[in-house]
Design goal:
Blueprint lengths: L1 H77 L5 H12 L7 H12 L8 H12 L3
Helix pairs in contact: 2-3, 2-4, 3-4
Length: 137
Amino acid sequence: AAARALEAASVAKTEACEADVAAKVAAASRVARKAVAAAVVAAASKTKLQALRAAAASAATAREEAEAAHAAALREARAPAPSLPLRLRRICDALGLEPGPNLPATVRNAAAVLGITPVGSGLLGKVLQLEDYLGLA
């Protein structure tokens, strides 16, 4: 009988200890859930702030790139057109020819190498046709 009483007391003590541990685990779990929830809220706020900062930086970069492209387009539009001899030199360089001092003869030679007959009323029109054909315009 004494052994049973000791065993019952031991079982009761063990059950009380297990109940105490379960209560402490539940309390710790509640605290952990609250901490995780607070961390999620903080992370979401931080993420929103970071996203806003990134969007602002991206917008600023895009604006700077657009301004640079606009400035380059203005410079290009204001740049003087290349001279006819320079344009013929580019055509001859593309074809591997040596431009001569006679511009009409150089145009005829370049057209002959390409196997085309430029049509037009002037030398400028024929040079433009050669540039278009070669993709230099």
